[in-house]
Task: structure prediction
Amino acid sequence: MATPNKETVLEWYRQMVLIREFEEACQQLYNEKRITGVYLHLYSGHEAIGVAAVACMEVGRDHIITAYRDHGLALAIGVDPNKVMAEMMGRRDGTSGGKGGSMHLASREHNFWGGYAIVGGHLPLATGIALAEQYNGTGGVVISMIGDGATNNGYFHEALNMSGVWDLPNIWIIENNGYGMGTAVERAAGNPILHQRALGYGIKDLERVDGQDVFAMYEAVQAAVEHARAGYGSVLIEAITYRYRGHGVSDKQYDSKLREELEKWKREKDPITILRNRLEKKYKDIAKTLDAIDAEQKAVVERSIAFAEASPLPNTYEELFAHVYVES
Amino acid sequence: MVAVKNLPVREALRKALMEEMERDERVFVMGQEVGQWQGTHRVTQGFLDKFGEKRVRDTPISEMAIAGAAVGAAMAGLRPVAEIMTINFAFLAFDALINHAAKIHYMFNGQFRVPLVVRAASGWGNQATATHSHTPEPIFAHFTGLYVGCPSNAADAYGMLKASIRDENPVLFTESIALYPKPGPVPDDVDYLVPIGKGDIKREGKHVTLVAYARGVEWCLTAAKELAKEGIECEVVDVRWLRPLDTALVFESFKKTNRAVIVEESLPLYSFGSEIAAQLQEHCFDYMDAPIKRVSALDVPVPYSHDLELMCFPNAEKVIAAVKEIV
Result:
């Protein structure tokens, strides 16, 4: 297993900071009504998972797909933040021309197959994309993010079982942040140890991983990629994490118990702080470099906001009706 | 002249599917019992031996995943032909078809295509009861982003399935169970395609237009034959595709006959019949000489007992009675 060098780890750090800055900006823009709508699901708190997953992908060969909490993956995989922010604001220069919105980011050129807003709906798509890889013998693997809530719907069961039956190169990563919307995992799952479901589908169980530790995640996903790429079939990982901005921006106010829980995670298990501390411990004098990265990412996000707000809103019937069907 | 072969609908479909798999390596079939069982309706009979397990994929009983995985495979460049054993089970796949297959091209602004065909046997008969006797094609045709094809005879089944497989868009392709054994001439031409969205005049006439699709066409043709004996000439318009809908062909016929009876195997509320009637009054009001009639399935769950079951559905006699009310 390849050990990441300093440069690589700094790149992870950059991506994680970019995601955090971007998401916190989104929250602010939503509060100011510069981002509108009701659906905005932020990735703050989850950064290490998405960044580690993307780090394990072979560019141009492997694939990734997720649900509606999708901004982090788009940014980690290298989609232009300007375009992502433009999509948040429904602008013509957005990743989907303003027609997909926050929950439906995608970039075909990055093999980022999208965010999907129907819980679990993307899971059989991942099965199908993996089927195409196996069918064509091209050796790519497909990483799918799964919210803990999605593990209780039929799509999860059917998609993972079918992948198990056909030994498809799927890597299923449950991002267990403790809640499906407002319902705690223990109140929603008969067996709340979610990775144990792998047994039922005959797929490799890589058990629980600390989703706040980018190195732990990287190791787990690397092992999963090796397994799937070698043709041994699909793999399930349960990453334990926490969401900093609730289910979405339209959540009701937190009660004091939840507030306390959140503050504890932020204090003790923040993925960016953990990585930063680790880097500072290993490399003396790195603080300056990290500070520079922080400042750069802030600037990138600022630029993306300016870009997005300068981009026109689509408003023609031609745009409205484009791409309903593939025109022959 | 292209030579023709006389084939039942089932074999016309089999020929179409087999030829498309021979023509294009990317085309494969997946579904319950399509392989070892030789197909629930025997459309894929012999496919497993001929093409092997890679391209003839037996699936678990997982309609959500059959449709959903087919969507993913299509996005990734394959040309899946997924079989949902009967359309009654397509309700389980509704989300994959409507929220995914039909929306992905649009929602991601054209970045992905979903060249998918979902085949489903449709219809009632043999006392299949309330859960296994649905003909809900118009429900699926309600949603933009999907095409819906419903052939009425062997040649159309052949040319429409080929056109569906070669198209870049998702198609729900329904096959009337009662029509599977019905023989008809089929062009012996591997590139015979029925264009998507193009209807067909199945019989010319000048007194009344009968509008139908799938099995309804058969009842219309039988009725037309009977009515001709009494001097009433019916024009039978088979729309063939519920989406895109060939309204131009319906309007053209109606402007000639000034009367219409719409025949549908599905339920009457928010239906194919409602849609055609609404469009006729909007676009052809000045040509209308009589109320537009509909012959639909009765608004009741389909019961088990044989006589009660038959009472639920249209037939040629009901079509004849409707025509006589307005001619």
